[in-house]
Amino acid sequence: MNKQIALVTGASSGTGRHIAIALAQDGCDVAILGRRSQELEETARQITQAGARVLILNADLRDEAAVKQAMASLLEWSGQRVDILVNAAGIPGPLGDPIGELGVEDFDSVMSTNLRGPFLTMSYLLPVMCRHGRGRVINIGGTHGMRGRAGRASYATSKWALRGLTRSAALEVGEYGVTANLIAPGPIAVDRMRKRWAAQALDQGVSEDVILERYIADMGTALKRPNETGDIVEMVRFLAGEGGRNITGQELVVDGGVIV
Ligand SMILES: NC(=O)c1ccc[n+]([C@@H]2O[C@H](COP(=O)([O-])OP(=O)(O)OC[C@H]3O[C@@H](n4cnc5c(N)ncnc54)[C@H](OP(=O)(O)O)[C@@H]3O)[C@@H](O)[C@H]2O)c1
Asked: PANTHER family of this UniProt entry (predicted)?
């Protein structure tokens, strides 16, 4: 992937940060988008350390004008080219609220981050990729968008709809050599999740390993191991690399074997 240009949204933390750094290690110059400046600076530091060029795009994906401005800055920086777009930004929204109690503002916020955000970046960058005759779009969905989930209606709806957006894009841009796929991770052991498990361990007076074992048993994970950010990173590498050249319109579940 030497000297390809990648944009990774949600690169200020979690999975997006790991994806951005991995693409830099693979030789890409990487633009990173998010709202928290300090966290973006840290990702940028690690990208620079990997020997790649980096562009920080501080923007709120819910704000159309801000995204438009960010995409203009990106194209100026890259010389009007983007080879890889990874839409990793996302929020879980309210946890446990049934639909009757789910506030419309919360619902809208999840939809505009998880669905309208990827729509906006794709609407600006797909034409650029098509003109260039090459491109890889990788949207990060989630297994909650494969089967629905009580108490997670806004999140599940947004991730489910992202599949429709991805498949439609694949059909629209395939003839120009552009692919669009979605990775559907099960719960990933990001810092945010590890903090939750640590708090539960303290609460229940058991070790974090015990909490993790229970969690894996509850999930019914075939492989009996948690989903690590590295598992998602490797799938991104595959789809963005030579292995992914004839794969499009697909949803790749990375969850250790829950949805089987
Ligand atoms: N963690 C899991 O268990 C899990 C499971 C399945 C799928 N996923 C999906 O995987 C992706 C990454 O999740 P994660 O848990 O690894 O990450 P995370 O640490 O929660 O980070 C989320 C990222 O999204 C960005 N973001 C959120 N709202 C934004 C907005 N309005 N505008 C711009 N950026 C925004 C955040 O940046 P700022 O805060 O700086 O804006 C941050 O970089 C998400 O799409 C998530 O839905 C996660």
From this structure: 3-OXOACYL-(ACYL-CARRIER-PROTEIN) REDUCTASE, 3-OXOACYL-[ACYL-CARRIER-PROTEIN] REDUCTASE FABG
Q: Which CATH architecture fits 5-188+227-254? A: 3-Layer(aba) Sandwich (3.40)
Q: How long is the chain?
A: 260
Q: Is 151:96 a contact under the CB 8 Å cutoff?
A: yes
Which residues of the chain form CATH 3.40.50.720?
5-188+227-254
Full pLDDT tens readout for the chain, 260 residues: 778 999 999 999 999 999 999 999 999 999 999 999 999 999 999 999 999 999 999 999 999 999 999 999 999 999 999 999 999 999 999 989 999 999 999 999 999 999 999 999 999 999 999 999 999 999 999 999 998 889 999 999 999 999 999 999 999 999 999 999 999 999 888 888 888 889 999 999 999 889 988 888 888 899 988 889 999 999 999 999 999 999 999 999 999 999 99
As a whole number of angstroms, the distance between CA 111 and CA 90 comes to 9
Distance CA 136, CA 10 (A): 17
Atom of ligand 1 nearest to the CA of 143: 6
Instruction: Respond yes or no: is residue 176 known to be catalytic.
Output: no
Q: Is 61 in the pocket of ligand 1 (CB under 6 A)?
A: yes
Kindly give the number of the ligand 1 atom that is closest to the alpha carbon of 16: 12
Q: Whose CA is nearest to atom 45 of ligand 1?
A: 90
Helix orientation angle between 104-111 and 153-173, rounded to the nearest 10 degrees: 30
